[in-house]
Amino acid sequence: MNESGDVRNREGGLQAPTRHPLAWRDPAFYDETALNRELARVFEICHGCRRCVSLCNAFPTLFDLVDNSPTLEVDGVAQADYAKVVEHCYLCDLCYQTKCPYVPPHPWNVDFPHLMLRAKAAQFKRGEVSAARRRLTHTDAFGKLASIPVVTEIANASSRLGLVRRLLDVHPQAHLPRYHSRTARRRLKSLPAPAGSPQAAGPTRGRVAVFVTCYGNYNMPQVVEDLVVVLRHNGIEVQLVEREVCCGMPKLELGDLESIDRHKNINLPILAQAVEAGWDLMAPVPSCVLMFRQEIPLMYPEDPAVQAVKKAFFDPFEYLMHRHRAGLLNTEFKQALGKVAYHAPCHQRVQNIGPKTRELLALIPGTQLESIERCSGHDGTYGVRRETYEVSMKIGRPVAARASSFAPDAVSSDCPMAADHIAHGMTDHRREPVHPISLLRKAYGI
Asked: How many whole angstroms separate alpha carbon 39 and alpha carbon 34?
């Protein structure tokens, strides 16, 4: 506030950030003239600030465009080049949550990630997204096909072939996840009946329905199994969500909001029914949790079922730490973990739940943590695509170097894709990544 009491032109802000709903059904959301006007306005603010230059490649791209323009200002940048900035934003949200002093409720109202999402959605609606990029986001379809027992090994082998990678626009050196014929749902088809009555603690009810996720079901079924075992070891009743489709995060990164709408119309009634029946919700991948806690609620702010699901959705370690505060966490750890290089993923950090994974792992005797809070640069498709793989590896290089220098016994991240990307970039002390929930099961000795 200045001397006259005017807050409109104040530098920065001290209030907690707030998000505005996405007006994605409004035709004006996609209007190219209005969109370019808003891009220029926000780019001008970013150019005058430049605090986010170290986060990703979107900001260096913008600043290079400005610095190489004839006017050395945003007005000298061709509007056709705005797409180059949009290309390098992978919606990690860190600029919004950790750097930008002008986020709402500041009058300048800068929400860079959601402006980039709007631009991506406009590009998608205009048909400017390649078929290869669209194919790469069909996570459910690929998983269902690749998990057929006679197909799994063929799928894993063919993913290393140049022809397949060209079809999907995947870089020749990019790490791709393996598929499993024994999916999480096949492994956990029949869960034993719970023993005893569930105990509530804080916002948790002691009954969890797990949203398995595409990645959890097809690519890391052991982690989902470990999650269920750890929850039951802590007296928590567990079931799998009756059925599910992709949460929609790959489509969000693409700007394909209509596909998110279709996925939401399948998932939400099932999730809302589980909440109504007294179950809390959980997913083993932070990006999927974020979809149901932030992105989908902002797309459907007036839908009571969406808001009920949002309230009931938890990160696994957030949930367990709620139980710990109530004295209900089993702390009888039988095995030390040694030195763990732990990476806190962006999509978990922006949920404002605090470093719950780190706090819980720190309870395990004989465990030394090197906590790394910096973007791995992966973001699902950005870290494997031919056009962005090299940049992605550059962004993640400081994380991989710090993990290597720690000479860890284990490399871990709540985001399995980030963990793979970090391990892929490590040159010394390379380790196969282990999910934190799997480390916790190991510490319990179960």
From this structure: 9
Residues 188 and 289 placed together within one structural domain of the fold: yes
**Same-domain status, 42 and 107:** yes
pLDDT tens digits, 149-195: 767 877 777 777 777 777 788 888 888 888 888 999 999 988 777 66
pLDDT averaged over the chain? 90
Average confidence (pLDDT) over 44-51? 94
What does DSSP say about strands 237-240 and 207-210: parallel, antiparallel, or unpaired? parallel
Count up the domains in the chain and report the number: 4
In whole angstroms, give the CA distance from residue 228 to residue 240: 9
The whole domain housing 310 covers 184-322
Question: For position 371, which CATH number holds?
Answer: 3.40.50
User: Among 211, 443, 187, which residue's Cα sits nearest to residue 319?
Assistant: 211
Model pLDDT for residues 261-271, shown as the tens digit of each residue: 999 999 999 99
274 and 357 in a single domain? The answer is no
Q: Which amino acid is at 138?
A: H
Q: Is residue 6 part of a domain?
A: no
Does any domain span residue 385? yes
Write a three-state SS string for 129-167: CCHHHHHHCCHHHHHHHHCCHHHHHHHHHHCCCHHHHHH
Q: Are residues 79 and 208 in the same domain?
A: no
